[in-house]
Amino acid sequence: MTLFDRFLQKQFDFKFAVKKVKKISIKMSVLVKTTTSIIKEIKNNAKIVNICGIKYLCNYKHISSNYCLISKETSLSKILISFQNVIQNQRRNMSMCESQKQELVSVNESRRFMIDCFKAFGVPQIHAEQQADLLVAADYRGHFSHGLNRLEYYLNDLSKKSTDGAAVPKILKETPATAWVDGCNGLGAVIGNFCMDLAIKKSKTAGVGWVCVKNSNHYGMAGWYPMKAMKEGFVGISMTNTSPLMAPTRAKEAALGTNPIAVGVPAGDDHFLLDMATTAVALGKIEIQRRKGEDIPEGWAQNVEGASTTDPEQACCLMPLGGAEGNSGYKGYGLASVVDILTGVMAGANYSTKIRKWNALGCNEQADLGQMFVAINPNCFDPDFETNMCDLNSRLRNSKPNLF
């Protein structure tokens, strides 16, 4: 690893080879003094166009006019001045971040940024758009752990060739109501959209569409896929297994993933949407607390010894939904196991500890995740389904509030 690569790995949230990225903005989460030797290497690898000082999403905005472009012809003195300006601005922004009003970026600009990132790694336009649309939707709905926060991981996989950004899923076996799909190691959103669209198509004729896929990758916000079914008036269900992060009840080593479950139900102008991990919390929530320098709640994670911890730096494994055994954490453990059965085992994909770690140590391997997508036509059942669903939502919302 070159000095340049080590610098990027330490300083940038995006740990991929930035020198490959042309004319896009790269965010920097931690800034330290830049040495002359590193500057010289940056000049030699100068395909970096803009380096933006961004702390989380507080300062995320297009700043191409604010900093000089770095090229092989740029003098060392100009580069040093540019980096000094970035560092000074970042320090001011970091000191003001907690007190100032949060700056927002437009949906279109966020989408453009992510599409350009994917295209810089050879991802076709239509695939880049699908993945970016999912990430933007997650941030827009408040699921910050599955939005821009996840872009780094996708780009790492693309740079290591452990994900094929141009791959197109293919059907291996099907019946009128079911399908078994090979994701061909493509982008998660591309595979997920393909599978849910296929499930919806089957549901229109058979009443139910059930699709399992192997050789998939991280597919983002699980609720994205049931929402596609809801637009057609169908009930949608989506599940995926993930890299092992959860320690089973009474264990201190990870053997299951966050293994989310998402269910979407239409109800006229209303709807019901559940999107939940079967761990106490998604990994991204702990990452955000770590970046903010804040503790995590009791019951989210445990340390290397298997004890519950509130220190995000000591978090070794996520705890099951419910937390400790005394708080019914074994139920979350059971749900996570069910997801792994219906996805990894049923699809012939990896499962449990067979799945790679989703970090710098595991990104050279293919994930081969298993996922499940279901669409159900409620008109095959009670004709008053929609009316009753609206009534259920109303009863839940109008429950007397707990004032304690």
TrEMBL record:
<dbReference type="InterPro" id="IPR036111">
    <property type="entry name" value="Mal/L-sulfo/L-lacto_DH-like_sf"/>
</dbReference>
<comment type="similarity">
    <text>Belongs to the LDH2/MDH2 oxidoreductase family.</text>
</comment>
<keyword id="KW-0560">Oxidoreductase</keyword>
<dbReference type="GO" id="GO:0016491">
    <property type="term" value="F:oxidoreductase activity"/>
</dbReference>
<dbReference type="InterPro" id="IPR043144">
    <property type="entry name" value="Mal/L-sulf/L-lact_DH-like_ah"/>
</dbReference>
<dbReference type="InterPro" id="IPR043143">
    <property type="entry name" value="Mal/L-sulf/L-lact_DH-like_NADP"/>
</dbReference>
<dbReference type="Pfam" id="PF02615">
    <property type="entry name" value="Ldh_2"/>
</dbReference>
<protein>
    <submittedName>
        <fullName>Uncharacterized oxidoreductase YjmC isoform X2</fullName>
    </submittedName>
</protein>
<dbReference type="InterPro" id="IPR003767">
    <property type="entry name" value="Malate/L-lactate_DH-like"/>
</dbReference>
